[in-house]
């Protein structure tokens, strides 16, 4: 649903690191992520997943090619503009949750809005709503260390959504969770996706990737193949099988 | 990011490390407390000393003869050169209201009736107007040539039965001879009356130079002669002009003189000083015989003399403030060090903040705010501690309490400056942290 335009597009992106001899972390990747889509990226270690994440997340700039996020070419932006774009158009969900340890749940969720200078009451209100939507309405004042892993990841998801970003980037979002909690989180992803949120999930677990509309397989910095899954938009389709087949670790 | 939000976040992280933050600020607390305490003491000390110059005393010029480069305050290196004739001649000068000698008499003991107390140097010989009328609470000034004395409360109260006006005291001089004084007045307090005495409270008995100084001078052989003087003094009582007769042949020479100008105006003081110096250094004076090439007459007002004292005080105070400044430097290095540790420790948090949209300046502001908070807390606690310490010190030494309030403001500013300087580099490092590396940081 709600797929009007492109959330992120990469065209012929190359990222080269010079550690001794040049290493092409990404070697000519072109990719369109439509708004409202749910994309998974899979690939073994060193295939360029993290680099791709960093580029889409406006944390890094490409050596060659263009990365467009929310309609803006990341490579042409100043550091400040890039940070601002990141703050407003990208929501991050990390494997290790990455909550601020001294802020409680609602403050963590509101943190991105703090840097956009949004009024405190407004921030709290929005954060509270999101926490309710991820099922933590009764835990808004809890500190991260008072929350379980699954709850922390919900907080992180709420934080990712707080600025209403063009895309939510999830890097192994269930990597530190047990199977039941993982299912809960992925169900939440589905729920938000159905609500129109653009999701990009990096994983090396097949059953996680299968929640998406399509899976991009990366290998050695290039797109190996793109796997379109059935029932695009209706993400529940095919997932039970995917989950059972389990660890699709290539 | 709104500065208030920075403050809130920074305060949060300071509270997260209570002990560490407390220890970090301790250096600043000690430094600021030391400065405030010593500056309070210094200001109180100065107020205590300067408060003792009565407005009327300001027209007095205190003189002595010493080698030109003698240092060390009133009477340093002074030689007895001034005769009574000189004083009279000076008093006759146009710009001079009065002139009289000043001397401390060496005593052994003082008796009031049956009771005797030991006292070394509490007897001061000078002219009648040395004791201002308004400082006498009871009785009157002594008269020149009379065996009379004005005592201060400390002297009056040192006997079991307090001395009152009309009593007669027996004084045993250092040489062993006994002399009697009739108490004719009591002063209002026991602090010194001039810079010659010093300003501390102690028992003092003020007597006229004639007969008391002249007697003792001839006894000890000070001055050119005057063995003949001893006889003709005892009966002289009551006549202010008696000085003339008593010092006729033998000249008891004074170590110190006090010259009163017409008024406390600087012009009058300068005029009195100038004509006195001119006279004393001219061949007409007795003093000139002894001045020679080596000695020079120094004539200074209380204020000028206190200025010297103040210079010494200031030097001491600067010295202590300097030490305190080193403590502040050490304290700020402590803050810088802890902030660096904190930046490293919170690399991941910095990464998170940057990932969710924190600008470099937000991160910079956050860490800078934190170190400024540490600095300001240190300054506030230090100021409080310093004021308390200063208060206790002032109470202990018994001085009027004067708080140098401008230093409180300065202390807070110093706290902010120290916080900024100490936090600048750590905050800059935090701001420059690459979010990709920071997020990977374990």
Most extensive interface? A-B, 28 and 22 residues
Spatial strand arrangement across the major sheet of chain A: 6-7-8-3-9-10
Overall pLDDT metric of chain A: 87
- Say how many strands of chain A there are: 10
Number of helices of chain A: 8
Q: Overall 3D geometry of chain A?
A: globular
- Summarize the helix and strand pattern of chain B as letters: HHEHEEEEEEHEEEHHEHHEHHHHH
Number of helices of chain B: 13
Major sheet of chain B: size, sense and barrel closure? 12 strands, mixed
> Separation of termini of chain B?
27 Å
Average pLDDT confidence of chain B is 81
Strand share of the residues of chain A? Answer: 25-35%
Q: Which range best describes the helical content of chain B: under 10%, 10-25%, 25-40%, 40-55%, 55-70% or over 70%?
A: 40-55%
Number of domains of chain B: 2
Radius of gyration of chain B: 32 Å
Keywords (chain B): Cell membrane, Membrane, Transmembrane, Transmembrane helix
GO molecular function (chain B): transmembrane transporter activity
Protein name (chain B): ABC transporter permease
Organism (chain B): Natrinema limicola JCM 13563
Labels describing this entry:
heterodimer; A: 250 residues; alpha/beta; Rossmann fold; six-stranded mixed sheet; four-stranded antiparallel sheet; 8 helices; 10 strands; globular; B: 442 residues; alpha+beta; 12 strands
Overview of this protein structure:
The complex is a heterodimer of chains A (250) and B (442). Chain A is an alpha/beta fold and 250 residues long. Chain A is built from 8 helices and 10 strands. In chain A, a hairpin with a 1-residue loop joins strand 1 (6-19) and strand 2 (21-34). Helices cover 50% and strands 16% of the residues of chain B. Chain B has helices spanning 3-16, 18-50, 84-92, 153-156, 209-220, 242-246, 266-281, 287-291, 302-345, 347-355, 360-397, 405-432, 435-440; strands spanning 60-66, 96-105, 107-112, 115-118, 123-126, 136-139, 148-151, 168-173, 178-187, 205-208, 256-261, 296-301. In chain B, strands 1, 2, 3, 4, 5, 6, 7, 8, 9, 10, 11 and 12 form a 12-stranded mixed β-sheet that branches. In chain B, helix 2 (18-50) crosses helix 11 (360-397), helix 9 (302-345) runs parallel beside helix 12 and helix 11 packs antiparallel against helix 12 (405-432). Chain B is elongated, with a radius of gyration of 32 Å. Chains A and B meet through helix 2 and helix 3 of A and helix 1, helix 10 and helix 13 of B.
């Amino acid at each position: 649903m709600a797929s009007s335009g492109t959330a992120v597009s990469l065209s012929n992106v190359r990222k080269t690191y010079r550690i001794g001899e040049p290493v092409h972390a990404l070697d000519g990747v072109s990719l369109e992520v439509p708004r409202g889509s749910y994309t998974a990226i899979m690939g073994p270690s060193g295939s360029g997943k993290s680099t791709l994440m960093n580029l889409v997340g406006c944390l890094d700039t490409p050596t060659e090619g263009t990365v467009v996020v929310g309609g803006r070419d990341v490579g042409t932006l100043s550091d400040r503009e890039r940070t601002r774009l990141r703050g407003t158009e990208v929501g991050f969900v990390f494997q290790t949750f990455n909550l601020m340890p001294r802020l409680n749940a609602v403050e963590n969720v509101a943190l991105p809005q703090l840097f956009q200078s949004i009024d405190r009451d407004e921030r709290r209100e929005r954060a509270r709503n999101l926490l309710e939507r991820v099922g933590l309405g009764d835990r808004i004042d809890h500190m991260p260390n008072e929350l379980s892993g699954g709850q922390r990841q919900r907080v992180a998801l709420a934080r990712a959504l707080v600025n209403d970003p063009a895309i939510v980037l999830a890097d192994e979002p269930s990597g530190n969770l047990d199977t039941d909690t993982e299912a809960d989180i992925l169900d939440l992803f589905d729920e938000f996706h159905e609500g129109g949120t653009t999701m990009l999930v990096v994983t090396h677990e097949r059953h996680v990737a299968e929640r998406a509309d399509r899976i991009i397989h990366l290998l050695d910095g290039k797109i190996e193949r793109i796997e379109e899954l059935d029932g695009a938009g209706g993400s529940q389709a095919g997932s039970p099988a995917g989950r059972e087949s389990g660890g699709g670790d290539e | 990011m709104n500065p208030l939000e920075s403050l809130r976040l920074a305060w949060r992280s300071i509270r997260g490390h209570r002990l560490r933050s407390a220890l970090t600020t301790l250096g600043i607390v000690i430094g600021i407390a030391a400065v405030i305490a010593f500056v309070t003491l210094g200001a109180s000390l100065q107020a205590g000393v300067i408060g003792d110059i009565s407005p009327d005393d300001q027209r007095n010029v205190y003189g002595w003869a010493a080698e030109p480069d003698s240092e060390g305050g009133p009477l340093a290196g002074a030689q007895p050169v001034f005769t009574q004739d000189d004083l009279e001649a000076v008093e006759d000068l146009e710009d001079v209201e009065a002139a009289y000698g000043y001397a401390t008499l060496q005593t052994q003991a003082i008796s009031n009736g049956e009771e005797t107390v030991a006292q070394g140097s509490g007897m001061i010989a000078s002219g009648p107007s040395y004791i201002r009328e308004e400082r006498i609470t009871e009785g009157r000034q002594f008269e020149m040539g009379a065996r009379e004395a004005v005592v201060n409360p400390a002297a009056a109260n040192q006997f079991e039965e307090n001395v009152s006006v009309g009593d007669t005291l027996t004084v045993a001089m250092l040489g062993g001879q006994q002399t009697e004084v009739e108490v004719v007045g009591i002063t209002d307090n026991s602090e010194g009356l001039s810079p010659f005495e010093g300003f501390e409270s102690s028992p003092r008995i003020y007597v006229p130079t004639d007969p008391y100084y002249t007697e003792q001078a001839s006894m000890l052989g000070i001055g050119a002669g005057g063995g003949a003087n001893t006889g003709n003094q005892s009966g002289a009582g009551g006549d202010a002009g008696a000085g003339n007769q008593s010092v006729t042949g033998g000249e008891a020479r004074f170590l110190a003189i006090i010259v009163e100008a017409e008024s406390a105006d600087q012009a009058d003081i300068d005029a009195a000083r100038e004509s006195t110096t001119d006279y004393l250094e001219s061949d007409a004076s007795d003093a000139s015989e002894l001045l020679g090439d080596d000695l020079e007459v120094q004539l200074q007002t209380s204020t000028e003399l206190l200025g010297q004292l103040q210079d010494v005080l200031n030097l001491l105070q600067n010295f202590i403030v300097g030490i305190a400044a080193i403590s502040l430097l050490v304290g700020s290095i402590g803050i810088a060090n802890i902030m660096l540790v904190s930046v490293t420790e919170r690399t991941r948090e910095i990464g998170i903040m940057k990932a969710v949209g924190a600008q470099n300046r937000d991160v910079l502001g956050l860490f800078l705010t934190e170190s400024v908070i540490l600095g300001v807390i240190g300054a506030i606690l230090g100021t409080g501690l310093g004021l308390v310490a200063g208060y206790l010190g002032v109470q202990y030494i018994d001085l009027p309490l004067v708080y140098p309030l401008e230093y409180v403001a300065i202390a807070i500013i110093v706290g902010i400056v120290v916080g900024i300087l100490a936090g600048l580099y750590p905050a800059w490092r935090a701001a420059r942290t690459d979010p990709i590396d920071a997020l990977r940081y374990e």
